[in-house]
């Protein structure tokens, strides 16, 4: 007999006896509420794409570890439903799932047999950060760094290797990928010769062919240096952000929660450069800038 499943969109805080067929699409790391209650939230999705959030509390976090796994589909019956806080409601009678009481959970995929990869586009990987989450992707490796060692906060050394992959499918693959590959190589292993770019060339660049780590060399003049654009202020000695403290006072800065920062005199300077092909307004800040005015 085919079981009758309820659509997640029909669940309400009053629904008691029901059965849904749903997949765990997100599972966050367990966390503590300010009152020290342990909780872990997850998101379930049924075949029609309706979603519901569920929360495991205290012992449930451990006991449901192997029962509700990411990416697996389950038949869930009679899990208690609670109303969703007014602020987060996405529909009338919106509810969330808890897992106590008479909840029954049955996995729908066969336990035995090889786990087949479920390939997804890189762009659809959810932004939940959890070490337990795994995703299968097929892509082209654009860059693979040599293994290097980094020190953790506790002093242990771990091997790290940066790998850049792409899976862009919509564009003309071959030229797109070789372009990207050349760009990544240029940034990661810059040649010893400085390649000078012009402001005119820079203006033709689009957001899509720029990378955050790119370093660009320009040969330009500051035609009208203006001393009024030199700004001195009191800021964090680590990140340079402005702060309310007086010079010399220590404080906690949001950019470096683990460091004690000191309010220090800082300088930044805004100026316009030209190289005959265009103009560019730049701001110099940080230690390199301060050296100029010391
Ligand atoms: Zn700071």
TrEMBL record:
InterPro entries: NA-bd_OB-fold (IPR012340)
Record-linked Gene3D superfamilies: Nucleic acid-binding proteins
Protein name as catalogued: Uncharacterized protein
């Amino acid at each position: 007999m085919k079981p009758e499943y309820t659509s997640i969109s029909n669940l309400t805080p009053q629904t008691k006896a029901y059965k849904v067929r749903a997949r765990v699409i997100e599972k966050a790391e367990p966390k503590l509420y300010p009152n020290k209650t342990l909780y872990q939230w997850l998101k379930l999705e049924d075949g029609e794409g309706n979603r519901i959030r569920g929360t495991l509390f205290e012992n449930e976090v451990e006991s449901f570890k192997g029962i509700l796994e990411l990416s697996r589909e389950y038949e869930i019956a009679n899990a208690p439903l609670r109303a969703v806080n007014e602020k987060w409601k996405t529909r009338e009678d919106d509810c969330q799932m808890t897992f106590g009481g008479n909840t029954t959970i049955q996995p729908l995929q066969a336990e035995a047999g090889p786990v087949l990869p479920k390939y997804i586009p890189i762009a659809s990987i959810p932004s939940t950060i959890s070490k337990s989450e795994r995703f299968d992707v097929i892509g082209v490796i654009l860059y693979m760094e040599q293994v290097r060692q980094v020190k953790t906060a506790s002093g242990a050394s771990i091997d790290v290797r940066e790998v850049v992959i792409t899976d862009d499918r919509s564009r003309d693959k071959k030229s797109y990928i070789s372009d990207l590959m050349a760009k990544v190589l240029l940034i990661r292993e810059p040649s010893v010769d400085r390649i000078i770019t012009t402001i005119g060339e820079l203006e033709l660049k689009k957001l899509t062919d720029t990378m955050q780590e790119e370093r660009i060399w320009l040969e330009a003049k500051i035609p009208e240096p203006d001393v009024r654009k030199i700004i001195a202020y009191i800021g964090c000695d680590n990140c340079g952000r402005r702060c309310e403290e007086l010079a010399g006072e220590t404080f906690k800065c949001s950019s470096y929660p683990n460091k004690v920062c000191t309010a220090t005199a800082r300088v930044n300077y805004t100026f316009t450069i030209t190289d005959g092909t265009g103009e560019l307004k730049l701001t110099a800040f940080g230690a390199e800038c301060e050296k100029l005015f010391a």
